[in-house]
Amino acid sequence: MIQLIRLLLILLLVELGYSGYLIADRLARPLPVLPDAENLDPLLMSDFQELAKQAETGSSKEWLRLGQAFLGQGFYSYAENCFQQARQMDPSDALAQASYAFCLDRTGRMEASTREYEKLEAFSGETDEPFANRRHYLYAIGRNYLREENAEKAEEVFRQNKAFPPAAYQLAKLLVRSGRVDEALPIIDWNLEKTPNSLVFNQLQAQALESLGRMEEAKQARDHVEHALSMIELHFNTAFLRPYSIRHGIQKEVEDYNQMLGRNDMDHLAQKLDALLEKLNARLPQYQATLISMLEVQYQRKNPEQMLQLIQKLKKYGIVNAETIQFEAGAYILKEDLDKAVPLLERMLEMTPTIEVHQTLSNYYEQQNNLEKRDYHQAKMALLYAMINFRNNQLQRAEEAIEKSAELNSQDPQTWFYVAEIKRLLGNQSAAIEAYQKCLKLNPNHGRAIRELKLLEKSSNP
């Protein structure tokens, strides 16, 4: 009997000890802090609460996921606490370390951020995650130094990383600005060999050549800028944050909707959007975006009355832009009320000219036997085609389209400017001079035409 009592006492002590350990361990764990729910969509807050519950008893991975959820919605200080906890629980987690440094960067603590990015040098393994791999965190460190106006340290870091085109661009830009253009040009030229249509490197090349007084070469570089594209990413924040921003809340619902567009089942999409709208607070930006998505669906369903109701809701919230005006016109076209649609389309063109709308108006005015307005819109269509081909460096196609535009509407200074630009690049200087002069006769204040004409006349009469 005594032995049984002793055994029971031992079991009780063990249980009390274990319970004490669990309580101590629970008290030692930090509690996740959540943002104020007042201005959050309810689905997002629900996701935050569920992730926080998992983090309370989970590992570094659960804290990392909670931090990423905060990060995707711009709650940097809340995310920072989570990443701090994740890296303490797993010091080998490079993504947690990089994310912590990123939060410090985004909240203006560049010196502290740089120290944390530098710790990533000690991590092994490769990753393509922005900011966690060496080329990205070195680039982030260099940008931190730039923001602190420490050009010397920024240059040193960018030099270490100059095989990475964004870092090479920042290095070359520092060299140009500090008068070391001869050192910058080989870096610029090497990158233009790899990406000849890069907007930033073409712009920088033109600037560098101008500073050396090599104006003819600089002019050629400026011409290349007209056909260049934004091919070199200089800011990686969006690439880093976007995957996290669409994982939770209403954004996840919207992303699910976007994925469903390929199914082309408009009835199903309409039901999905109706359900989504019911979950949204009208003060949230997603509410208005959802209304615009509903407009597109109702247009595909050929339901003009529903479209007009949605447009009135958008107007109530002060949302009137080229897109909503075009949808309103589309609703009246579906109702075969062109007298109401046409003024809306004309207004929309003042904001955002498009070939499709010019085509619609051209057809309308042809039916009305208004040949002057028909030709006006056909000329604008040809001008837009010419501009597209010009920017794609398809100069022969651009020439055909711009000549048609000038034939249909000889009173448009913009048309004559592009006639001149295309003729100049094709080597027809006399035709280019004549076209610039016609442009300036119609618009004496056309700054680019004034500048280009002076340069062309100077080169023609040295």
Helix-strand blueprint:
Blueprint: H1 2-28, H2 42-57, H3 60-72, H4 76-89, H5 94-106, H6 110-118, H7 134-147, H8 151-160, H9 165-177, H10 181-194, H11 199-211, H12 215-226, H13 237-245, H14 249-260, H15 266-278, H16 285-300, H17 304-316, H18 322-334, H19 338-351, H20 355-367, H21 371-391, H22 395-408, H23 413-425, H24 429-442, H25 447-460
Helix pairs in contact: 2-3, 3-4, 3-13, 4-5, 5-6, 6-7, 7-8, 8-9, 9-10, 9-11, 10-11, 11-12, 14-15, 15-16, 16-17, 16-18, 17-18, 18-19, 19-20, 20-21, 21-22, 21-23, 22-23, 23-24, 24-25
Keywords:
3 domains, Serine Threonine Protein Phosphatase 5, Tetratricopeptide repeat, 462 residues, mainly alpha, single chain, 25 helices
Q: Could you state the order of secondary-structure elements as H and E?
A: HHHHHHHHHHHHHHHHHHHHHHHHH
> Taking Cα atoms only, what radius of gyration do you get, to the nearest Å?
31 Å
CATH architecture classification of the largest domain? Alpha Horseshoe
> In CATH, what is the class of the largest domain?
Mainly Alpha
Contiguous runs where pLDDT drops below 50 for at least 5 residues: 18-28
Number of domains: 3
